Amino acid sequence: MSGGPRDVADAIRRHGEAVASGKHLFSGLRMSVVDVPGADLAMELEVDDTVTNPTGAPQGGLVATLADIVGGRIAMEGLGDDCIVVTADLTVHYLGGITNGPAHAVGRLLRRGKRTVVTRVDIHDGRDGPLAAACQLAFTVIRPSV
Question: Would you give the DSSP letter of residue 39?
């Protein structure tokens, strides 16, 4: 994103069109928002043979993607429709597999600044299961230049 307001607005528009078309990569993932007291956002990803590796657990990149989606949605809260966030840093500590599913991601805002937003996402093996991944994410806020 190097250009001005049109570049950001065009990127947002094209992304929205891809998601709405059902052809976006994430369209095939069965994710849903769930209510978790104290969370800024919580989502679950259904775990079945379509998203697991031979051990029966989701591949690590998919776990990181789930954290990125939850953290990114938290980071976008309160920003104008003409703004986006991009992942600047993503740290995942893999603590165990997610074999009982769903992958239960609980996100919280750690810090919101003008240019950077930091979130934490804990991913559990099932709603009441053990912590499977502890993730911290930093996002850069991209605003159109005026």
Answer: -
